[in-house]
Amino acid sequence: MSNAAAHAYLNTRVAVMATRLFDPDTIGQLSQLQLPELAERFGLAALLDEQLSARTRGRAIEQTLIQVLLGELQVLVRPMPATERAVVLAWGRKYALFNLKTLIRGKLYALDQQEIRDSLFDLPTIIDPPDQELLRAENVPELLRQLEAGPHRLIARQAREAYEQRREPFALEAAIDQRYYAGLARQVMQFYDTNLHPLQQLIGAELDRTALLWLLRFRFSYQFSPSETFYQLVPSMRLLHRERLLALVNVEDLAGVLAALPPPLDALLTECRTIIDVQRHMGRHVAHAAQRLLLQSPSAVARALAYLMLREMDLYLLFALIQGRLLNLSTEVVDIALEIIEPTCPWILAPTGGPAARHRAATA
Amino acid sequence: MPRPRIMKHVRLLVLTEDLPQASLTLAQTESFHPDTRPPLEPALTGLPGRIYRDTYYQARSRLDKIAKLIAVPEDPMLDPALDQVRVVEPAELAQLNDWLGQIWQKASGYEEDLRRLDDQERLIREQEAALANFQHLQIDLRMLRNKTRFLDFYVGIVPRENLRQLEGAVGLADHLLHVYMQRGDQSHVVIIGPTGTTEAQLSAVLNAAGFQPLPIPEGLDDDPQQLRQDLEAQHLTNRIRRQSEYERIAEWSTPFLERLVAARRTLMLAEPLVALDPSVRSSGHLVHLAGWVPARAVDDLTARLSQSLALPFDLRVRDPLPAERKLVPTVATKNRLLEPFAMLVQQYGIPEYGEVDPTPLFAVTFLLMFGSMFGDVGQGAAIAGLAWWLRARLGRFWLFGLMAGLASMGFGFVYGSIFGYEEVLPALWMSPIHDPILMLKIALAYGVVFLTSACLIAIYNRLVIKNWWGALFGHHGIVNLIFYLALVWGGLHLGRGESFGTVPTLLVGTTLAALAGYAWRHLEAPLGEKILVVFIETLETVIGYISNTLSFLRIAAFSLNHVALSIAVFTLAGMMGAFGHVITVILGNVFILVLEGGIVMIQVMRLQYYEGFSRYFGGEGHAFAPLKLRRGSAPS
How many domains is chain A built from? Predict the structure, then answer.
C-alpha cells in the first residue's frame, strides 16, 4: 500500500481540522469581541460566571483550551503506527512536564497539598499517566525518592541538590525542559523513511527557536558563562547544531550572536534589538515552517504535528485575549499580545539579570 | 434463550447519622451497584462525604507506604462476620489518619537512611570498578587525587545521557574530558583543566550534569591488596549499618504492629462509604443514595437495612426506565464451564441490560466449529491434556482448552482420525477428504443457520426494548431476514439447476425495495447523495449476506486442510527410515497442533465476532460491580 493510501484517513482528518486554524482576519475579528461574545463563540461557559475571580476563570479557561488541544491530539494519534504516535505524544508531553514542575516546586516550597492539586492540569492518561505516588509525597525527601525510582531519575540528583543546597528549582526546571527537547529530537531521529526530512524541518525549526532563545537568555539575562549556557542547550538537527552553538555561546553580545547566525536566521533577525523581538520573530518563523509543511508535505505525521503546533499557537493567542479581557487590559496591550500591532513600549531595553543571575551573584 | 438477570433501581433516603452504617450494610449485601447520576430533586446538591473520602485516601496512602517498609501481619479477621462490622465515624478516621501521618513521618526518615546506604553502596561499587581500571595504568595516579599547581583533576561518574553535552561544555571552560570506562548507564570520566578562574564555571556545569566525584584513595599504587580489603571493609560496614537499620525499624515498629493491623481493618470498614461517595447527595440531614440491585436481592437488602439502621429510612424500588437501559449494569455469568467463554465474549464487549447474553451460544458454536475444523482424537487429547497440565498457569482459562480438546476429540471419532492416521479408528461418519463437496454444502448450510439465528437474536433484542421499527426494518431485522431466506431459497433452486424462482424473486425484490424505502425516508441529505447512499446500502445488503454466507465455507476448507496436512506429513514420513518416520510423524503432529490449531482458533473467533456478534451483540453494557468489603491489603 502506498504511503498516501496508508495515511488517507489521517490526512483527511488533518485537512478537516485545519479549517479551524485562525487566519489574520479571524484574529483581527476576535480582538474586537468582548467576553460574552468569546464565551458564546468558543463554548467557554466559565467566562460568564462572575462569581468566580478573574484568576479562577482564567485558570478554568486555560484548562479547557489545553483539553481541546490534547483532545485533538488524541484523535490524530489514533490511526498512527507506533513510531509516529510516539513522536506526537512526545510533543504533547510538555503539558505533563508543566504538572511535574508544579508538583516539584510546590513540594520544595512546602505548599498545601490541596493548593498543589488545584494548580495541576487535568490531562488525558495517554499524555500524563497519573503518578499518585509523586502527588502523595508528604515531604521533600519522599518526593526525591519517588523521582529517583521513576522515569525522572536523571533529574533526581538535581532535584536533591536544589533542595539540600540551593532551594532554588531554576536549574531543575531547566533540566526538565532540556530533557523534553532532547527526547523530542531523539524521537525524530528514529525515523528513516519519507517522514524523516519533514519532521526534521518542523522539529528542527522548533529546536532552533528554543536553542537561540535559551542561549540569549542564559548568556545575557542570567549572565551564565559560555560553558554553563552550552550545557543547557539542546542542539537542533537543522540550523543551530552542536558546532554552531559552541561558537555562538562564546559571542559576547546580542548583536554579535544575531550577526553570527546562519541564513535565513541572520536575515530574519537582523532588525531585532531585544530578546523579546527575537522571540516574536522566531515564533513567526516556526509558524511559517509549520504552515508550509501543513500545506505541502506528503508526510501525514509531519502534517498532523504541524497542525497541532499551529493550533497550540492559536489557542495561546485566544487565551491571551481572554486574559486581557479578564484583567481589563487596554486594547493596545491586547493587540500587542495578539501580534496585531508591534510593541511600542519604551521600557523594552537590553536584557538585565533575572532571578537566576541574582541568585548566582549572591552565592558566588 | 438465556434471560438476563432482572435488575431494579433502588433509591435510599437516610439521615446523615446513618450514612456510614448504611454504606456498610450495602457493602455486606454485595448486591448494590451505585448509580452516580445526580438526583432529580434540585435541593439535593450537597456532597457530604468529601472530607471523609479525602481523609480515607490520605490514610490509605500512608498505610500503604508504611507497609512497604514494615511487614504488617495479615489480619486474622479478614472476613468479618456481621457482628464484627462497625461504623467508622469521621472523627475516628481523622484520628487514625493523624496517627498514620506521625508514623509515616518517622518511617520516611528510616527510608531516607536506607536510601543513603544504597547510594553509598552504589558509589563504593563504582569506585571499585574505577580503581580496578586505574590499576592497569602506567602513570602516577597520585596526580589524580590532588590539584597540582597548574592543573585541576576531576575524576567521577556522570549519566551517559549527559556526556556529550558535558564534553562540549567543559571544552568551553578550557577543560578536557576523557571517558575511561562505561558501566551501565554511567560513564566514568576524568576532566582535566587549568586551575584558576574557570573553576566556578566548571563547578556549575558539573552540578547540572549530575557529576559525582569518585575519591581516589591513598595507597592506590602501593598496596592494591590493602586497597581491596579497605573497599571490602566499606561494603561490610555498609551491610552492618543496613542490618542495624532494619533492626532499629523492627524495634521501633513492634509496639504498634497490632495497631497497624487494626488500622487496615478500620480502613476496610470505611471504604464502602468512600466508594459510595460519587453517588451520595444530601440536603441538610437527609442523604440520597441510588443504585442498581438484582431483583432477587431486594428483599434481603430491605431486611438488612431494617435490621442495621437505627433511624428511619425510605427505600423505593422500581423497574429501570427504557431510557436507562444503557446505565443498568449486567450481572456476569457465574457458570464455571461458561466462564472462559465469557472472558472471550468480554473481549468484544459486555452485554447491555436486556440484551441476550451471547455466551452460551458462543460456547456451543465455538466448540462445534473448532471441533469440525480440527477433528482428531489424538490431537484433541493433546490439547485437552496440555490444558489440564497447565491448569495452574492458565487459571480459569484451562477449561476452555479442555473443552476445545474434547470437541476436537469428538469430531476425531466422527472423522475416524487419530494423530492423522485414518486407518486405526473406524469413522462414525467419514473423513472430510472423502467427499469435499458434501463438506462444503454442510458448511454453507451451517452458515445459513448461524446467520439466521444471529438475525433472530438481533430482532429479539430490539423487540425487548420496544424498538418496533428497528426490529422490522433495521439492519438484520425481520425484512432483512426475509430477504436473506428468500435469497437462500432462490440459491437452492439455482443449485439444483433450476431458475431462481418466481416467489423468491418477488420476495427478494419486495424486501429490498422496502429496505431502500425505509432508508430513503430516514436519510436527510441532498437528492443526489440520497440516491447514491440508498443504492450503495442496498447493494451492500445483497453483497454482504452473500459474502457472509460464503465465509462459512472456511469451516469445510480447514477441515479438509487438516487432513491434507496430515497427508503431507505422512508423505514426508514415508520417505524416511523407521526412526525418521516416527520423528517426522511426531514433529508433524506438533506442527499441526501449534500452527493449524492456532489458525483455526483465530478463524473461529473471526466468524464469531464478525459474522455473529456484529449482527446481534452491541456489547456496550457495563459490568455489575457491587459495593463490597475489600479483604486484605489491596492498594487503593
Answer: 1
